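OP here, attaching both records as promised.
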Amino acid sequence: MFKKLFGSLTGDNKQENQNYEAQTSNNNYEDDNNYQETEYDPETLHGTHYDVEDFDNEVAARAEAWIADERANGENLDEKDIQNIYFNYRRAVYTEWNNCDSDQMIRFEHANSLKYSGIQTSGFVKVDDNNPFLEPVHGVDLRTYTAMCLKISAGIDYLEVCKAMGFEPIIWEELNTIWPQRMGEDTSFTVTTLFGQYYAENVTVPQLENLKAEISEEGAANLERIRTDRYFYEELAGARQAAYEYGIDGAQWILDNFGINLADFQSVAMQWMTEQNQNWNSEDIMEFTNYQQEKQKEYAAKFAAEQGGNIADDVNF
């Protein structure tokens, strides 16, 4: 469950790059010649020179005018069409009113994703105290459940974790059914995103503090390095993806060769993803994406050689 869940969270597949390309292809919103410094509200990232209500009203006025014109011309717009119209006008108005580049616009969208799209973004989670999806299960809240997942995915037997928590293994089985089920049902992705942020924080609870996963001196050094060296993290992420493509358990390969367990690696992955969302910079992202892909190709060649080469190597056209 953990590998599949974190594959979707941290982009161990093609989807992350597809999303990135879609988000960073908004060149129509850049105007380097007219760019000027704007003061932004630190929470909403709206410009401080206007009221948010005025902004929303302007977007609605433009969007509704377009919608009315489309319908007058016989267009049958569904809910998705209307959402896209509002999305595009929100981008246009934000860019005009703040005279900003596309990176700032994307940071704004991340900060306001729940308000405008109904979906949470890692690094900008807003929590409603009355959210039924966050109600504790058997007295275990999401933070505690995450702490348990961290220990188990670090290699500590779940029976030890249950014993430390003071409940029977059947409780863990129910926790590990209900919390992932809520993640699937929560269309705002609050549970999933908050789980990821807790994971990035490497959260713990008092009952589990004495449970330590074994880690070698080399593993500890490599772990510290991927936390501080983005290029090293991208190299190992590329290597892990290449391993999976060659039928190798990538998480186990990282543990065997670098001494970093699954929990710690995924925690760092969430750390980098959250930081990227909060400080969106398309040039840096493209550089790291290209670097990871280069490393993935290098490790793919290594794994191919170890397995006697690719099948297609012997095919002549």
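Record two, same layout:
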Amino acid sequence: MSFTKTTEQSSKYEHLEKMSVHELLSNINNEDKTVPLAIEKALPQIETVVSKVVEQMNKGGRLFYIGAGTSGRLGIVDASECPPTFGVPFDMVIGIIAGGDVAIRKAVEFAEDDKDQAWKDLSEWNINQNDVVIGIAASGTTPYVIGGLEKCNENNIVTGCITCNQGSPLAQTAQFPIEVVVGPEFVTGSSRMKAGTAQKLVLNMISTATMIQLGKVKGNKMVDMQLSNVKLIDRGVKMIMGEINISYEEAEILLKKYGNVRSAIDNYKA
């Protein structure tokens, strides 16, 4: 298979160490501006993935992200933010990183090279045919991720991927690939930069669009969010005030009584 890693090609900038801080920041910013345009080209692929995730979740399925290094950490970030934002169970969207939880903070040597470990990690969650597994790898060549998707395919589990190279082994393995081709990085090969930004934006799109489709947003409000701090309680109170004509104090009482914005509004109207 003919495959070129554009993410690994030489930066179009030379002698970075000779640039001023202003030049460095301006050039990084100019490169970052290209990322949303690359994502725009992949919107049809993203739409297909979201539609499939919604379909499977309506069957009781879960969404898994698997990745190594930066890609794995980004998946964990997106998964961990779904419960507080949308009020879903912690095990509805699950991020798994090569090397285990210790790899979230510290690189685990050679963890991404184990082609069999991802399936073992997924099996601990009793993965089944209602679930969806999205492999995340900027290069599209990470053995941990490819091996995981291969085993999922063998077990009739829906697979997708997010990669930043076109025609990669990962994209060839996934049933529903998303390829966001961002080109060479500002620092050659540093795929935590544009590629990482692209992956984060796509993950935002997948989880947010999915949760909206599942009814976890009303109007434009996070009505099922968890009230885990003072800021969010205040936001919830103001959401209730915006929906029904009552005072701050009355809205706060409702919120504390019913536990979330949606229940407070529904019970008040009832």
